[in-house]
């Protein structure tokens, strides 16, 4: 069991309830990363499902749960021959923090009938760059759990030179050696800095709603993450992320709606 597996572990205590312990190592300056929290919820859902893989997840983030004990409560809505549907609630201190609707199925690795290529070609990894290590007092512990190598223009905002477009692109891998699986993908699709940073806006940008789809089981090796946005207006922005595996296969897609950063 890797550190990530342990940090997302869900232990069944009755027919509808799982105990979890939210790990402070996945903090983004206080709040826990939304992708990490989804991975915790999905551990419980998949354990409860007759199918192996979370192929579609929609989560609404009502509150920002704190590190420590919590529960995932699952409600089986329907199960058919090829898919099952579950409502899952992350609860802490008796208060619902995250509500998710999850569809599970079993993927078999069939070759795609049709597949678009990536919309952007990444430079070689040796031409990409890391963000500086955060200061210990920042509470940005998430950075230590994964390695991100960024396409340089998309982090120009760090030096005061944003591209002016909502975008983020990077190679992703876990710091501890671990092949990507659906739970790692849940973390990965929310691992990039908010795309509005590249449009010149900064600050914590809380996600309100995030939907992601597991499109294929990833091959071993690093993932390529390509993030973009279409509209920033009235204090809101959207963010789309594609995750491509080391063989060039599209393995996950996500879209989220979030608030423009404050502070």
UniProtKB/TrEMBL annotation:
SUPFAM superfamilies in alphabetical order: Thioesterase/thiol ester dehydrase-isomerase
Superkingdom of the organism of origin: Bacteria
InterPro entries: ACOT8-like_C, Acyl-CoA_hotdog, HotDog_dom_sf, Sec_Metab_Biosynth-Assoc, TesB_ACOT8-like_N
Occurrences of domain Acyl-CoA thioesterase-like C-terminal (ranges): 126-260
UniProt domain Acyl-CoA thioesterase-like N-terminal HotDog: residue ranges: 25-106
Protein name in the entry: Thioesterase family protein
